[in-house]
Amino acid sequence: MPHICYCIDAPDSAEKRQATMAAHFAYVEQIIDEIEVAGPLRDSAADSPQGSCIIYRSNDRETALRLLHADPYYQAGIWQEVRCHHFNAAAGNWVGGTAW
Predict the structure, then answer these.
(1) In the CATH scheme, what architecture does the domain 3-89 have?
(2) Could you state, in chain order, the average pLDDT of each consecutive group of 10 residues for the chain (100 residues)?
(3) What distance in Å separates the CA atoms of residue 90 and residue 97, rounded to the nearest whole number?
């Protein structure tokens, strides 16, 4: 079952995010088989990132958190708030319609 991690950037973390981006991308490529989808959170398409959303392909929360805690963005303290929950994909293109 996938787990979704919703991560909000700390104030004034833009420079730290930029400095850590290459390491973050390298880490994502290293664990790409563990990720369903991931990307930055933005207020609009033109705005700079305000956080990150990652849906891990993990059977338990502990695995998702282990993957998240190894992320260079997490280790650099870019995210002020992190929420991680089981995600039950129930409708939409990803699930081929509905799952009920």
Answers:
(1) 2-Layer Sandwich (3.30)
(2) 95 94 98 96 85 95 97 98 94 90
(3) 8
